[in-house]
Design brief:
Number of helices of chain A: 30
Order of helices and strands of chain B: HHHHHHEHHH
Number of strands of chain A: 38
Strand content of chain B: under 5%
Oligomer: heterodimer
Structural class of chain A: alpha/beta
CATH topology of the largest domain in chain A: Alpha-Beta Plaits
Helix content of chain B: 25-40%
Radius of gyration of chain A: 28 Å
Shape of chain A: globular
Helix content of chain A: 25-40%
Radius of gyration of chain B: 18 Å
CATH class of the largest domain in chain A: Alpha Beta
Distance between the termini of chain B: 43 Å
């Protein structure tokens, strides 16, 4: 074979699997002559692909800096699904919604398809690659000595090394920028321990978790890893001696992380550090934990922070502080984390330092907080460095700027744009027309991370490899290749990467390389480095900021758990996935406490104009008790002025409210003072909360820990009279008829009964399952307008119910994934006039799309409201509500029919995966084994809350869980006999509210 | 450049081959003969009757994934050239068609076959399950006696009733969700 490169062996000439492509494009139920299809064979059969069979390639997710390993399912040369790589120690086979949606970045219809240059009229026009590279080379020569800067995202990688070498060669420098770079945490670590690195956190072995605003389940450092660890520690498992770790959240609003807490302490913003010190003071003064050797220093340091002295400032009772300290220390494995909303103010670093002291006092440092296994994000440049760069740019000291993998013009609007205007020549390597790229002079679009080679070192000890899994979709080029060419070196970036790896492992390299590729990287455990309290610690003032008066409001700008810093906004899956807390999709909002709303006469959906000293934006109000009355909270992520059809001109950009000045520790203040004025405008917010599909309380069950611990096998704490006395006779009669029917044809004999068990104690409501379901089942995104009318098609949805105290204040939430219950006695089936909804022998509520005529009787009769109707032809080319514009249609799963207008659709437990596993088992002359079939939701769930299997198999995991005393069926009283067993949420302790 | 030069097993060592006397002899066709043949005219006049009938090449030598995958697999051009690097054909009409294969290989431009057997997008037909159940000789059950077709045409309706009749006859599943999902 002439082509020896693995990527070329996979060369995909055109769609061989016309069957697959045909299925995706035209699944019309038309009968009659089909249009002539062409079958185009391969020139050379790729060795590692069989048509109709998926091939999996290990690579690395680059959607955030966490560096999760992924396996990409490739069918006939198209990447159709991402799944976590079980070999990766970071995400252990799990993936979040943002990771799932990387595919929509790859096949995004608004990618920059070829190099472009700004012409004399200021408009972008096409340019060929050679011309573009020559132009850059000329500009580099011109700019030498006048300031060359390469601005990248977090790049702890061979690519970053290459850029560094190139910049050294041309006399420039590389800078990295992340809008959320955890400066406060790094500065706090330097204050407390004299090291600015970001350690690894072991949530899995924590016995008590105290978060000071650190949203470790959504945006803090490494969310999938932490969520997996958190659910191991926090889930209720009767088989384990210390049943569950209590989780207490301290912060001004309940985030996705906060709403999973057992207790919410709404401390006054900025006083979180005082609380941490008060806790440490109690622990040290009362010797609640085995104290470190230098504890004597601690006690003098903490002397001024006795609970009595600080309780009033923090705004919570003294005895609550003492109780928390006691619980934290006595657990023998307390872990405190700081970050996010608590460290967004000017004293963020001090708060992080204070939490470090608490960890140190309780003995968590070195065991649960591991310096040594440092995270890459800790080496990113700070916001202070970016402001210095902006000053240089504004002063004309930057003649040539390269931008790669970051979009500062969106997250620092205004200031960065202005500074950019003073730069001589700006080159973007982005493959998306984001705000920064739109302001550049030349665009050399990079390959998507799924199209190119690379590696990254997300944390010490882990080197994750990245390999191309598909042929490039557009005429893009790997930036590594371009840089090698510009720096006059031969070879491709692949050669460069291999060279780097070969230098580390020369013997038997080819085998080593192939093994590493198959595993997705090299995973080792970095040795833990001991840290001691820094000598200068005693000089730090932990005083809380004075309560500010005046008319202005405290406004918190927080990272959107789904869209993050805005990078997810061009992916329709992420836009349509409701925010886990507010359940709002497709637009931004401001969180207002009902007391504040009453004062201002606000209703949900009323716009308020927030005006800080830096900018003004208006947001529709979402009135909620999950935010402190004296705080308004706004998510980032929306309000793009560019970045493609799904992101552009959508709602408002919260970054506009923030200043472009770095604070004392080099971070950015995400909390601002702003005036709030009602504008008089109103919009209907796009929310799934309280919609007609939600069933309200009574579908979720919560048990206090003591009660859950007392349960024995065979107990039934949730007693539902499934069949009331008066109906017994009728139901028995019905049962007999059913039994008769069940002995006809297909229904005779031994069959599995597929079922799910969902542990609400593990579910955090993050939404990864929802996006995985969209990806696996070709679910169309309907867009803002139709979603507002309740026409979304999310087969799986997350219903969030607040747990409240006696005053109605939320103490956290219970999240309930709601999907088709595959009822044994399904209300949807008998009402279908055309037998499109029917019962399969293996216990599913089948839905035959080609038989459905769209009467919607089934949906009317479904008590769970999990059937979804196609009001439009979302797959229609150029249609009004087209969900898969080219090339987004490339990610459609060829194993699943694309539904058309007038068809009812719903979850069928990933029946294509069931049939696939059955086919495979039959080929291997065996039965399907427990664990062979994993539904998309169960596969991706970072908390491992969902288990799928055969309820008729007594040894399966799911039937064991279905018999768990915590298990219950939703709306069991309707006698629908669902196949899904929910395990009740267990709450560590019933506690009154504070703050 | 390395070609896979291994000949099909039958050609190479005569396995499974019937005695020469009973073997099907594919006719040499004139232009007027070919115009009367059923089915669409393919870009290369590929004779299934010569390859599968006369030369007894097993179906799955070319349709290599039919027994392991839902898709039967269309032979890559490399498979064609594996033999036709050496085999140039007898009659001039055959030689002309084989030249098209060699040209396509040289130009690295595979032929665009016209699809004959197509199912709607909402139907799944796992080839491997059917071959597992019915054996490797079962292709003709649905595709007809391709071994004697100079030009392949569709002989079965491929309608659901036709599928279900066979499923009833063999007493196997008639569950909708086995094929429709």
């Amino acid at each position: 074979m002439s082509d020896s490169l693995p990527v070329d062996r996979r060369r995909f000439l055109k769609v061989l699997g016309v069957a697959g492509a045909g299925a995706a494009a035209a699944s019309a139920c038309g009968i009659g002559p089909e249009p002539t299809e062409r079958l185009i064979p391969y020139l050379i059969q790729p060795e590692d692909q069989i048509p109709g069979t998926a091939t999996y390639y290990a690579t690395t997710c680059r959607e955030c800096a966490a560096g999760c390993g992924v396996r990409v399912r490739v069918r006939e040369g198209r990447a159709v699904k991402l799944e976590g790589n079980p070999d990766s120690p970071i995400n252990r086979g799990r993936l979040c919604a943002r990771g799932q949606a990387a595919l929509q970045g790859l096949y995004n219809p608004d990618r920059v398809a070829h190099p472009m240059v700004r012409n004399a009229r200021g408009v972008f026009e096409d340019i060929d690659w050679d011309g573009a590279i020559q132009r850059v080379a000329a500009k580099v020569r011109e700019a030498q000595g006048k300031g060359i800067v390469f601005l990248s995202g977090t790049e702890q990688s061979s690519f970053g090394d290459l850029v560094d070498e190139w910049m050294k060669q041309v006399g420039g420098r590389r800078m990295s920028y992340e809008p959320f770079a955890f400066e406060a945490l790094r500065a706090g670590n330097r204050m407390a321990f004299g090291t600015a690195s970001v350690p690894a956190y072991d949530f899995g072995n924590a016995k008590y978790i105290l978060s000071f605003g650190a949203d470790f389940l959504d945006t803090w450092l490494s969310p999938v890893e932490f969520q997996n660890g958190f659910s191991r520690a926090h889930a209720f498992d009767a088989g384990r001696p210390a049943s569950m770790s209590k989780f207490v959240y301290v912060g001004p609003r309940l985030s996705l992380t906060g709403m999973n807490a057992d207790e919410w302490i709404a401390a006054r913003p900025g006083t979180e550090g005082l609380l941490a010190l008060a806790l440490a003071q109690v622990i040290v003064a009362r010797h609640l934990a085995r104290l470190p050797a230098d504890a004597s220093r601690l006690s003098s340091l903490l002397a001024g922070y006795a609970p009595r002295a600080v309780a009033a400032t923090i705004g919570i009772d003294e005895d609550v502080i003492v109780r928390l300290a006691r619980e934290f220390a006595i657990s023998g494995g307390g872990l405190a984390v700081a970050g996010g909303m608590a460290t967004q103010g000017p004293n963020g670093a001090e708060i992080a330092a204070a939490v470090n002291i608490l960890n140190y006092a309780a003995g968590a440092v070195g065991t649960l907080v591991k310096f040594g296994a440092d995270l890459a994000i800790g080496s990113t440049h700070t916001f202070g460095d970016l402001t210095a760069l902006m000053a240089d740019m504004a002063a004309g000291k930057v003649a040539l700027l390269f931008v790669h993998g970051t979009n500062p013009a969106y997250s620092v609007p205004g200031a960065f744009q202005q500074a950019l205007g003073k730069v001589g020549y700006k080159v973007s390597f982005s493959s998306y027309m984001d705000e920064t790229t739109a302001a550049c002079d030349l665009i050399l679009p990079d390959h998507h991370s799924l199209e190119q080679w690379g590696d990254s070192r997300p944390r010490a000890g882990v080197t994750a490899l990245q390999q191309p899994v598909v042929q490039p979709v557009f005429d893009t080029r790997p930036t590594g290749d371009v840089i090698l060419k510009l720096s006059g070196k031969t070879g491709t970036f692949e050669d460069y990467l291999q060279g780097k790896w070969r230098a580390k492992h020369a013997t038997n390299f080819d085998q080593y390389w192939m093994d590493s590729l198959a595993k997705g990287g090299i995973y080792t455990e970095a040795p833990t480095r001991a840290v001691r309290l820094a000598p200068s610690l005693s000089r730090i003032s932990f005083a809380a900021p004075a309560a500010s008066g005046g008319q202005d409001q405290d406004v918190i700008v927080f990272p959107h758990p789904i869209l993050h810093d805005g990078r997810g906004a061009n992916k329709p899956w992420l836009q349509e996935l409701p925010d886990p807390v507010s359940k709002i999709a497709w637009h931004s909002w401001v969180e207002v406490h009902p007391d504040t709303a009453a004062k201002w006469g606000l209703a949900t959906g009323d716009f308020i104009l927030l005006k800080s000293s830096f900018g003004a934006q208006k947001f529709p109000a979402w009135i909620t008790r999950s935010v402190r009355p004296d705080v308004l909270a706004v998510p980032t992520g929306q309000g793009h002025t560019a970045y493609g059809r799904y992101a552009k001109d959508r709602s408002a950009n919260a970054f506009e409210l923030l200043g472009a000045q770095a604070n004392d520790y080099g971070g950015r203040n995400f909390g601002v003072r702003a005036s709030a004025t009602k504008t008089g405008e109103h919009r209907k917010i796009v929310t799934t909360e309280g919609g007609p599909r939600e069933l309200g309380l009574g579908t979720t069950e919560v048990l206090p820990l003591a009660r859950a611990k007392a349960l024995h096998p065979g107990d039934h704490p949730f007693h539902f009279e499934e069949t009331p006395e008066y109906a017994k006779e009728a139901v028995e009669w019905w049962g007999e008829r059913q039994h008769e029917k069940a002995s006809i044809g297909n229904y005779r004999g031994e069959h599995p009964r597929w079922g799910l068990a969902i542990d609400l104690s593990k579910c955090t409501g993050c939404g990864a399952c929802v996006t995985a379901c969209y990806a696996e089942n070709n679910i169309a995104t309907v867009g803002e307008e139709l979603m507002q009318r309740g026409r979304e098609l999310s087969w799986m949805r997350l219903e969030r119910y607040w747990r409240t105290d006696e005053h109605g204040n939320p103490q956290g939430a219970v999240n309930e994934p709601m999907l088709c219950q595959q009822c044994g006695n399904a209300p949807c089936e008998p009402v279908c006039p055309v037998y499109a909804a029917y019962h399969t022998p293996d216990g599913l509520n089948g839905q035959v799309y080609n038989r459905c005529v769209g009467t919607r009787y089934c949906s009317n009769n479904c008590p769970y409201k999990v059937r979804y109707f196609n009001w439009y032809n979302y797959a229609e080319r150029g249609g009004q509500y087209e969900a898969f514009p080219e090339p987004l249609s490339m990610l459609l799963n060829p194993d699943v029919t694309v539904r058309e207008k007038g068809v009812m659709e719903k979850c069928t437990f990933c029946v294509q995966r069931i049939r696939g596993a059955q086919n495979q088992a039959r080929l291997e002359n065996r039965n399907v084994r427990d664990g062979d079939i994993v539904t998309a939701c169960a596969q991706t769930c970072p908390s491992e809350a969902i288990v799928f299997g055969d309820l008729n198999d007594r040894n399966s995991r799911v039937s064991e869980l279905a018999g768990n005393p915590r298990g219950y069926h939703v709306l069991a009283g309707l006698n629908t006999k669902p196949a899904i067993t929910y395990l009740a949420r267990v709450v560590a302790q019933e506690t009154p509210s504070h703050g | 450049m390395v070609f896979i030069l291994a000949l099909p097993p039958v050609v190479a060592n005569g396995q499974q081959a019937q005695p020469a006397s009973s073997r099907y002899k594919a006719p040499v066709l004139s232009a007027s003969d070919t115009s009367r043949l059923k089915g669409p005219r393919q870009p290369i006049f590929f004779r299934h009757d010569i390859h599968a009938g006369q030369d007894q090449i097993p179906c799955m030598y070319c349709h290599y994934s039919a027994s392991v995958s839902s898709e039967p697999g269309i032979p890559s051009l490399q498979t064609c050239i594996g033999c036709h690097q050496l085999i140039g054909g007898g009659p001039p009409s055959h030689q002309a068609e084989i030249k098209k294969v060699r040209d396509a290989w040289r130009e690295r431009k595979p032929p665009e076959w016209i699809r004959i057997h197509a199912l709607p997008g909402f139907v799944r037909f796992p080839h491997m399950r059917h071959i597992k159940a019915l054996g490797t000789q079962a292709c003709a059950t649905c595709h007809g006696d391709v071994q004697q077709m100079a030009q392949v045409s569709q002989v079965s309706t491929l309608r659901m009733g036709w599928c279900v009749r066979c499923h009833i006859k063999n007493n196997v599943t008639r569950d909708c969700s086995v094929c429709h999902y």
